[in-house]
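User: Please predict the structure of the protein below. I'd like the answer in structure-token form so I can feed it into my own downstream comparison script.

Assistant: Understood. Taking the following sequence of 284 residues as input:
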Amino acid sequence: MGKNLIAMMLQEYETFTRSERKIADYTLEHQEETQYISITDLSSRCGVAVSTVSLFCRKLGLAGFNDFKLELARAALPNRSVLGGPGSEIALEDSSSTVMGKVLSAMQDTLNNAYHMLTEREVAEVAELLHRAGQVVCLGQGNHSVVALAAWAQFSTTSPKFKTVQDAHMQTVMLSTLSEGDAVLYFSYSGSTHELLDAVEVIRSRGAKLVLVTRYPNSPASAYADVVLLCGPNEQPFQFGSTSALVAQLYVVEVLLREFIRRDPEAAEHCRRSVGKALTQKCV
């Protein structure tokens, strides 16, 4: 896009429909906030349909809502520090010591926020669901596939029923063999990727349970999840999957792991002893 998004909205304002003007008005008044919300949240706050927001973005020559947020962030770059989120901005002139301190502070804030976003009832519900499931598939896309892999690595030392797969094609194959007694633990910051929504269709067709770990309670996939666990910081569009988001989700993994073990500590200990015995053979 050659022209600043803000300037383009102001220039094209008179050509917008009434609904499109609601979107433009909200965005112009809440430029910073709009960069952190989902398309579902924006449509709700503007009182328009999600499809109207998508059409509005395309009318501006953009590929979609994520592209819209990217251009909105780019328009604000001259007034923003080079890295980091609100309260932890890192400037080019900062020393290495300052950078270390700011990153530490940001991570501490991330964990604190993750703790407060979880509820005891939802954590207990998910732990019980995982405990009762015949098999549990841990999935994610992009950066969050790393979290899914870490979750499987941790849970697999306590029970053989946990599985994962990284390839998108093989994920579909695995999901298509699930039964009503199985569950899927899915990690997605936005809760609105095509891969996730495609997976939701397969999971629902098999009658399996879906636990979604996401930032947005009103994301498209949240409406189909049996339980939604909220976590994650506000990401700037230019962060493209921040470390803070991964740290928040890993915190959720650790909480669920501890709760899962508490429901059958003897079985978990038996499995861990077997794993530990096997792994000792790999040490020099």
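That's the full token string. Residues 79-83 have pLDDT under 50 and may be disordered.
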